[in-house]
């Protein structure tokens, strides 16, 4: 049963009316005031939902088919940091002290991840989305300590022989020493720590990881493998695999998104143009292959397309990566191209086809988690909401910059 009051939903829909009535929403349907309104309505919904969650050790992860309320996971699940992250973004969008208190409440239990031995690379997702946003928005020194410890813990998975972080110690039987494209997203924690009192070797680890990923996991066809398998004694690259995609050589949508965003951040932190070119290459390939409604299928090469499920989470991740690229590329036309593409993604996600409205407790519908395992197919998933909120905030900030300056990017 949905806990969101019908009267509230009616009000939200009035606010969203302009961009929520069409299946396909063009970029110019969401701009300026509209971005703020969508953010505002998302905050109202999140505030209602969070009030119903009494147990801060349980974190929303997905909403099962035909259900309206979140299903929860514990602190050790790879998705645990996204819910506090969503709440931090809601606080950033609203400046509402109640949202801050809720974000703090759900952030606190994740501390243990930073001080336990590393189970996998997901420490970055778990701690940076929660404590990272918390520290960015509050400057709370206690959060900084947790972040620095989390970075040291993540770095224990680094192999100097391979030059990467071991992503999944539990999957060695299947993939040998493995490094996955998702792991690119967790380098930001290491870059941050090296600049904020952590050991400078954390920066070097992140750079080496990004270089090895660029060399072996980014493919010549401008897509990425999900998993790279290496010889842990010699460091030799053995083979690329998929785990969550359709096939080893297919283009798993979210994996491509982790690559776009991860390499953009690697360039931002190093100035190494090869990382920028890689991010651009992955972004261009993603955009060139997008279906007509602008939201990717879960895997671009699923032979069941157009019946295959979509993945809104991949769209949200790529939108954030593209907004990052807008800040990084110098060429004005390219800036405008990536801004429009990101804005198109956000606009479509904000249409009635993808926005949950009063259907359930999440913000977005239609994400796909692990299709080959028949898990989380075409359902709301918390990381879609996280990157969607981030994308909306990034869009709002760029639009503000545009209105204050002589147009940073064409609108
Ligand atoms: N393995 C993390 C993801 O589903 O993207």
From TrEMBL:
Protein family: Belongs to the glycosyl hydrolase 88 family.
GO molecular function, a single term: chondroitin hydrolase activity
Entries under PROSITE patterns matching the protein: PROKAR_LIPOPROTEIN
Binding site for substrate: 122, 182, 240, 242, 254, 258
Gene Ontology process terms (BP): polysaccharide catabolic process
Protein name: Unsaturated chondroitin disaccharide hydrolase
Keywords assigned: Hydrolase
Active site: 122, 182
Lineage top rank: taxon: Bacteria
Record PANTHER family: HYDROLASE, PUTATIVE (AFU_ORTHOLOGUE AFUA_7G05090)-RELATED (PTHR36845:SF1)
Classification lineage: Bacteria, Pseudomonadati, Bacteroidota, Flavobacteriia, Flavobacteriales
